[in-house]
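Lay summary. Proteins are chains of building blocks that fold into shapes, and those shapes determine what they do. In this project we predict the shape from the chain. Here is one chain we studied, written as its sequence of building blocks.
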Amino acid sequence: MTEPTQLEPMPDDWKRALAVVAHPDDLEYGCSAAIAAWTDGGREVAYVLATRGEAGIDTLDPAECGPLREREQRASAAVVGVTEVEFLDHKDGVIEYGTVLRRDIAAAIRRHRPELVITLNHRDTWGGVAWNTPDHVAVGRAVLDAAADAGNRWIFPELDLEPWDGVRWVAVAGSATPTHAVDATPGMERAVRSLLEHRTYIEVLTDEDPETYVRSFLTSWAETTGKRFGGKPAVSFELFSR
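And here is the predicted shape, written in a compact code that computers can read:
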């Protein structure tokens, strides 16, 4: 039996990153331990969310749920050193891949001018085991496209924003085919606290004590990933260079 391919360290010669995902909590389940380590190192990270997660809790009307989940997301981001959080106001659960979504994300990239763009698994499944949601697929695909769109002044000129061709990488969290990783140890406690800020959502997902559930999920995932990263608990990414 062949040994699994070892993961390479993520590049560290960058200053600004932009994370673009579909819903509140997507980053906290995926890669907030890495983000905590990056902000500790003096790097700037901003969040852009396509929706406010308003359709995510069956017992809450979207008009009530959206503002609540937005507040939880802002508090969650602050735990890992992120102060800029934007919402694009696409509709939760029915995000459509297309030029409107690409334009909104390209505009965010032009505003923030990142070298690294982060998103979530854009493929149809989670490793062939569970079906992915259409929102994740649409946003992830649009991020990959918008990273190029943002640098072309003749695509979406109506934005009246200077093009930004400085995106060097797009990193996909939650990929079944990761290539790189970040040591999760320095940021793990803040990752746990960050995910716990989404308490309203977590409490409808599990009957377990929220902290027990969150800590178990994040640490077990990091330890499994760490088997391919020198035995250190890790957060993995599939890294695309541009």
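What the prediction tells us: The radius of gyration is 17 Å.
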